[in-house]
Amino acid sequence: METTELAVLAHQIGVLMGISTKLMVQDHEAHLARCWPGINVPQHGVLRILQHHPLTIKELSERIMLAPSTLVPIIDRLESEGLVVRGRDPDDRRRQPLALTDQARQMLDSLPRVDLWEGLSLALQSLGLERSRQLSQLLQSLVTELSHNPQIAQRVLAMSTQAAEERDTCSMHRPPHGPSHGVTNPPLKL
To answer: Which residues have a Cβ under 8 Å from the Cβ of 187 and sit 6 or more positions away?
Structure first.
Protein backbone atom coordinates (compact mmCIF):
# COMPACT_ATOMS: atom_id res chain seq x y z
CA MET A 1 0.00 0.00 0.00
CA GLU A 2 2.78 2.46 0.91
CA THR A 3 4.61 1.77 -2.38
CA THR A 4 1.45 2.55 -4.37
CA GLU A 5 0.83 5.74 -2.41
CA LEU A 6 4.46 6.83 -2.94
CA ALA A 7 4.09 6.21 -6.68
CA VAL A 8 0.95 8.36 -6.77
CA LEU A 9 2.67 11.08 -4.71
CA ALA A 10 5.73 10.94 -7.00
CA HIS A 11 3.48 11.51 -10.01
CA GLN A 12 1.54 14.34 -8.31
CA ILE A 13 4.71 16.08 -7.10
CA GLY A 14 6.36 15.75 -10.50
CA VAL A 15 3.33 17.24 -12.24
CA LEU A 16 3.00 20.05 -9.68
CA MET A 17 6.70 20.92 -9.93
CA GLY A 18 6.42 20.96 -13.72
CA ILE A 19 3.38 23.24 -13.63
CA SER A 20 5.05 25.54 -11.09
CA THR A 21 8.13 25.81 -13.28
CA LYS A 22 6.04 26.46 -16.38
CA LEU A 23 4.09 29.24 -14.64
CA MET A 24 7.27 30.93 -13.43
CA VAL A 25 8.85 30.69 -16.91
CA GLN A 26 5.69 32.19 -18.44
CA ASP A 27 5.97 35.18 -16.08
CA HIS A 28 9.62 35.59 -17.06
CA GLU A 29 8.80 35.31 -20.79
CA ALA A 30 6.04 37.92 -20.47
CA HIS A 31 8.46 40.33 -18.79
CA LEU A 32 11.07 39.77 -21.50
CA ALA A 33 8.49 40.18 -24.28
CA ARG A 34 7.55 43.58 -22.88
CA CYS A 35 11.09 44.78 -22.23
CA TRP A 36 13.34 42.99 -24.73
CA PRO A 37 11.35 41.50 -27.61
CA GLY A 38 13.10 38.66 -29.37
CA ILE A 39 15.16 37.35 -26.47
CA ASN A 40 14.12 34.15 -24.76
CA VAL A 41 14.52 32.94 -21.18
CA PRO A 42 17.65 30.77 -21.76
CA GLN A 43 19.38 33.58 -23.67
CA HIS A 44 18.51 36.08 -20.94
CA GLY A 45 19.78 33.69 -18.28
CA VAL A 46 23.12 33.26 -20.05
CA LEU A 47 23.49 37.03 -20.45
CA ARG A 48 22.67 37.66 -16.78
CA ILE A 49 25.25 35.11 -15.64
CA LEU A 50 27.94 36.46 -17.97
CA GLN A 51 27.15 39.94 -16.71
CA HIS A 52 29.12 39.13 -13.55
CA HIS A 53 32.22 37.55 -15.12
CA PRO A 54 33.34 35.63 -18.21
CA LEU A 55 32.86 31.85 -18.21
CA THR A 56 33.63 29.06 -20.64
CA ILE A 57 30.77 26.98 -22.04
CA LYS A 58 31.80 24.17 -19.69
CA GLU A 59 31.73 26.48 -16.65
CA LEU A 60 28.42 27.96 -17.74
CA SER A 61 27.03 24.46 -18.29
CA GLU A 62 27.97 23.45 -14.75
CA ARG A 63 26.54 26.62 -13.29
CA ILE A 64 23.11 26.38 -14.92
CA MET A 65 23.00 22.59 -15.18
CA LEU A 66 22.48 22.44 -18.95
CA ALA A 67 24.49 20.24 -21.28
CA PRO A 68 27.12 22.08 -23.34
CA SER A 69 25.39 20.79 -26.49
CA THR A 70 22.24 22.65 -25.36
CA LEU A 71 24.19 25.83 -24.67
CA VAL A 72 26.13 25.98 -27.96
CA PRO A 73 23.13 27.10 -30.09
CA ILE A 74 22.19 29.69 -27.46
CA ILE A 75 25.75 31.05 -27.40
CA ASP A 76 25.97 30.96 -31.20
CA ARG A 77 22.78 33.03 -31.47
CA LEU A 78 23.96 35.55 -28.87
CA GLU A 79 27.32 35.77 -30.62
CA SER A 80 25.70 36.31 -34.05
CA GLU A 81 23.62 39.14 -32.54
CA GLY A 82 26.76 40.83 -31.23
CA LEU A 83 25.90 40.27 -27.57
CA VAL A 84 28.59 37.72 -26.65
CA VAL A 85 32.19 37.24 -27.74
CA ARG A 86 34.42 34.21 -27.35
CA GLY A 87 37.70 35.27 -25.83
CA ARG A 88 41.09 33.64 -25.60
CA ASP A 89 42.86 32.63 -22.42
CA PRO A 90 46.54 33.60 -22.76
CA ASP A 91 47.50 30.73 -20.43
CA ASP A 92 45.45 28.05 -22.21
CA ARG A 93 44.66 28.35 -25.94
CA ARG A 94 41.92 25.72 -25.66
CA ARG A 95 39.98 27.79 -23.12
CA GLN A 96 37.54 30.29 -24.66
CA PRO A 97 35.83 32.38 -21.99
CA LEU A 98 32.57 33.96 -23.08
CA ALA A 99 32.10 37.65 -22.33
CA LEU A 100 29.39 40.22 -22.89
CA THR A 101 29.84 42.95 -25.46
CA ASP A 102 29.24 46.59 -24.58
CA GLN A 103 25.96 46.35 -26.51
CA ALA A 104 24.77 43.50 -24.28
CA ARG A 105 25.79 45.35 -21.11
CA GLN A 106 23.91 48.46 -22.23
CA MET A 107 20.82 46.44 -23.07
CA LEU A 108 20.90 44.60 -19.73
CA ASP A 109 21.42 47.86 -17.85
CA SER A 110 18.42 49.41 -19.60
CA LEU A 111 16.05 46.55 -18.73
CA PRO A 112 13.59 47.67 -16.09
CA ARG A 113 14.19 45.93 -12.79
CA VAL A 114 11.31 43.60 -12.17
CA ASP A 115 11.32 40.91 -9.54
CA LEU A 116 11.05 37.81 -11.72
CA TRP A 117 10.15 35.85 -8.58
CA GLU A 118 7.28 38.16 -7.62
CA GLY A 119 4.57 35.62 -8.45
CA LEU A 120 6.31 32.93 -6.41
CA SER A 121 6.93 35.39 -3.57
CA LEU A 122 3.23 36.22 -3.44
CA ALA A 123 2.30 32.55 -3.44
CA LEU A 124 4.79 31.86 -0.63
CA GLN A 125 3.43 34.82 1.30
CA SER A 126 0.02 33.16 1.27
CA LEU A 127 1.63 29.96 2.62
CA GLY A 128 3.33 31.87 5.42
CA LEU A 129 6.98 32.02 6.40
CA GLU A 130 7.12 28.74 8.33
CA ARG A 131 5.48 26.64 5.60
CA SER A 132 7.65 28.36 2.98
CA ARG A 133 10.78 27.41 4.93
CA GLN A 134 9.52 23.84 5.21
CA LEU A 135 8.87 23.73 1.47
CA SER A 136 12.39 25.02 0.77
CA GLN A 137 13.92 22.39 3.05
CA LEU A 138 11.85 19.62 1.48
CA LEU A 139 12.83 20.72 -2.05
CA GLN A 140 16.50 20.83 -1.03
CA SER A 141 16.20 17.29 0.29
CA LEU A 142 14.43 16.20 -2.89
CA VAL A 143 17.17 17.67 -5.10
CA THR A 144 19.80 15.92 -2.98
CA GLU A 145 17.99 12.56 -3.27
CA LEU A 146 17.35 12.92 -6.99
CA SER A 147 20.95 13.86 -7.75
CA HIS A 148 22.43 11.26 -5.39
CA ASN A 149 24.85 14.03 -4.49
CA PRO A 150 24.41 16.20 -1.38
CA GLN A 151 26.78 18.82 -2.82
CA ILE A 152 24.42 19.51 -5.75
CA ALA A 153 21.64 20.86 -3.53
CA GLN A 154 24.15 22.86 -1.50
CA ARG A 155 25.75 24.29 -4.66
CA VAL A 156 22.41 25.20 -6.22
CA LEU A 157 21.22 26.81 -2.98
CA ALA A 158 24.48 28.78 -2.65
CA MET A 159 24.24 29.98 -6.27
CA SER A 160 20.59 30.98 -5.90
CA THR A 161 21.34 32.81 -2.64
CA GLN A 162 24.24 34.62 -4.32
CA ALA A 163 22.05 35.55 -7.30
CA ALA A 164 19.33 36.90 -4.97
CA GLU A 165 21.92 38.97 -3.09
CA GLU A 166 23.38 40.29 -6.36
CA ARG A 167 19.89 41.18 -7.56
CA ASP A 168 19.17 43.06 -4.35
CA THR A 169 22.53 44.86 -4.58
CA CYS A 170 21.87 45.84 -8.21
CA SER A 171 18.41 47.15 -7.43
CA MET A 172 19.81 49.30 -4.59
CA HIS A 173 22.13 51.03 -7.08
CA ARG A 174 19.52 51.65 -9.75
CA PRO A 175 16.03 53.11 -9.87
CA PRO A 176 13.29 50.44 -9.87
CA HIS A 177 12.47 50.97 -13.54
CA GLY A 178 16.05 51.23 -14.81
CA PRO A 179 17.89 54.30 -16.02
CA SER A 180 15.88 54.67 -19.20
CA HIS A 181 12.31 54.46 -17.93
CA GLY A 182 9.89 53.83 -20.76
CA VAL A 183 12.56 52.93 -23.33
CA THR A 184 12.14 49.62 -25.08
CA ASN A 185 15.15 47.65 -26.26
CA PRO A 186 15.43 46.80 -29.94
CA PRO A 187 14.36 43.26 -30.78
CA LEU A 188 16.93 40.57 -31.45
CA LYS A 189 16.89 39.23 -34.98
CA LEU A 190 16.11 35.58 -34.36
So the answer is: 36, 37, 38
Q: Does CATH place domain 2-172 in 3.50.50.60?
A: no
What is the rounded distance in angstroms from the CA atom of residue 80 to the CA atom of residue 97?
16
Which tops the pLDDT comparison, 128 or 160? 128
Averaged pLDDT, 174-189: 37
Q: Rounded CA gap, 116 and 23, in Å?
A: 11
β-sheet bridge partners, residue 55: 98
pLDDT digits (tens, 9 = 90+) for 130-139: 999 999 999 9
The better pLDDT of the pair 160, 140 is held by 140
Our CA angle for 80, 82, 84, nearest 5°, is 90
Instruction: Work out whether strand 84-86 and strand 98-100 pair parallel, antiparallel, or are unpaired.
Output: antiparallel
d(CA 76, CA 87): 14
Looking at residue 86, its pLDDT comes to: 92
| CA 91 to the chain's CA centroid | 30
Burial state string for 164-180 with b = 16 or more CB within 10 A and e = fewer than 16: eeeeeeeeeeeeeebee
98 DSSP β-pair partners: 55, 86
Q: What pTM was estimated for this model as a whole? A: 0.70
More confidently predicted of 106 and 65: 106
- Spatial contact of 46 and 74, defined as CB atoms under 8 Å apart: yes
